[in-house]
Design a protein that fits this description.
Layout (H helix, E strand, L loop, with lengths): L1 E6 L7 H12 L5 E5 L7 H4 L3 E3 L3 E2 L2 E2 L3 E2 L2 E6 L9 H5 L5 E3 L3 E3 L9 H5 L5 E6 L2 E8 L2 E8 L6 H19 L3 E5 L6 H7 L4 E6 L3 H17 L3 E6 L8 H10 L4 E5 L4 H7 L4 H4 L4 H16 L1
Parallel strand pairs: 1-13, 1-14, 2-12, 2-13, 14-15, 15-16
Antiparallel strand pairs: 3-11, 4-5, 6-11, 7-10, 8-9, 11-12
C-alpha cells in the first residue's frame, strides 16, 4: 500500500477539494482509504458528502471514539492542605489562588511538577479526553478523521491515532492507497501526518503568502527526505504571482505536476455539494484534475 499526503503550508489553498477530487478519480482503478488529519478543523467529509458511522473493532482491540492524548492535573480537595506549593511550582500559571488552589485545565501542560511537590498527594496527573475519532462513509471510500476538542492540545498525538486507524482500515480491505488530507502549517500535526508517507502532494496558489508558506513546508519535507510534487491551484488568478511560483519551483528543482485554472465551476459545484469533476466534467478545472489523477496513477 502506498501513502500520499496532501499538504499546503498555508490554509485555504484548496487542499481538501483537491484531495476529495483526486480520490474520486483514482477510485475508478484503485481501492482507497482516506484520512483527514487536520484535527483542528476537519472538513474532508463535507467535500465528499460523507455520513458518519459507528467506530467498530479492527483486529483484537476495540477502538474507542474518544481519544485520551494528553495528561492534566487534578486536585482531590479532601486531601488538600491548602499549602499552595503547587501554585508556586507551576511555571505555566495554570493554578489560581483563592481559598484553595484551582487548576485551569486549558493551560495545564500535565508536566507533573505540582504532583511532585504536593506534601499530601492531593494533586494527581492523569490522561484526559481531548479529542475524538470518526469513521465517515463516502461514495469514494471511508474517511478516518479526528477532531480536537476546543482549547485542547496534543494535536500531533491525535493525528498519530487517526493515521494508525486509517492504516488498519486500509489493511482490512486490502486498499492500495491511503490518501491523507493533511493540516496547514509546519507544526506537530504536519510532522505526524507525513510520518511513513511515500509521497507529498503540495497545493499552493499564486500569492506571496502562499509561496512563502510553501517554502516553509518544503523545508520540513526535505528534512525528512520524502519526495514531493507541487500543484498550482487557481493558477491564472487575476493579479496572481504565477511566474514567481514557477521560478521558485525551477530554482529548487521541484516538479510542477499540474496547474488548476481559476474556474467558477469549482465554487458552483461546491455550493451544490458536488465535486467539480462530477457536476461539470467538461469544465477546464475538471480536465486539469483528470490529467493530475493520471500522473498520480502512473506514480502508484
Amino acid at each position: 500500500m502506498k501513502e500520499i499526503v496532501v499538504l499546503s503550508g498555508k490554509g485555504g489553498t484548496g487542499k481538501s477539494s483537491l484531495t476529495g477530487t483526486l480520490a474520486s478519480l483514482l477510485t475508478e482503478k484503485h481501492t482507497i482509504v482516506l484520512a483527514d488529519t487536520d484535527v483542528d478543523a476537519p472538513n474532508l467529509h463535507l467535500v465528499l458528502a460523507g455520513k458518519e458511522k459507528e467506530v467498530s473493532t479492527i483486529g483484537k482491540e476495540k477502538e474507542v471514539s474518544t481519544i485520551k492524548a494528553s495528561d492534566k492535573a487534578s486536585i482531590e480537595y479532601d486531601m488538600c492542605s491548602r499549602c499552595m506549593e503547587c501554585v508556586d511550582v507551576c511555571r505555566f500559571d495554570s493554578i489560581l489562588v483563592t481559598d484553595q488552589p484551582i487548576i485551569i485545565p486549558h493551560s495545564c501542560e500535565g508536566c507533573g511538577a505540582c504532583n511532585l511537590v504536593c506534601p499530601t498527594g492531593a494533586v494527581q496527573v492523569g490522561p484526559v479526553i481531548n479529542g475524538c475519532l470518526r469513521i465517515v462513509e463516502t461514495p469514494v471510500g471511508i474517511i478516518v478523521s479526528g477532531e480536537l476538542n476546543i482549547g485542547e492540545s496534543s494535536s500531533g498525538k491525535l493525528v498519530e491515532v487517526v493515521k494508525n486507524r486509517a492504516r488498519a482500515e486500509a489493511d482490512s480491505i486490502g486498499a492500495d492507497l491511503l490518501l491523507v488530507d493533511g493540516p496547514p502549517g509546519i507544526g506537530c500535526p504536519v510532522i505526524a501526518s507525513v510520518k511513513k508517507a511515500d509521497y507529498i502532494l503540495l497545493v499552493t496558489e499564486p500569492t506571496p503568502s502562499a509561496l512563502h508558506d510553501l517554502g516553509r513546508v518544503i523545508e520540513t519535507i526535505v528534512f525528512f527526505g520524502i519526495p514531493c510534487g507541487v500543484v498550482l491551484n487557481r493558477a491564472d488568478l487575476p493579479g496572481g504571482t504565477r511566474a514567481e511560483v514557477v521560478h521558485y519551483l525551477q530554482k529548487n528543482n521541484l516538479p510542477l505536476l499540474a496547474e488548476i485554472p481559476y474556474d467558477l465551476a469549482m465554487p458552483m459545484a461546491l455550493a451544490e455539494g458536488e465535486l467539480v469533476v462530477k457536476a461539470y466534467p467538461q469544465a477546464i478545472s475538471s480536465r486539469a484534475y483528470v490529467e493530475l489523477s493520471q500522473k498520480v496513477g502512473e506514480m502508484l
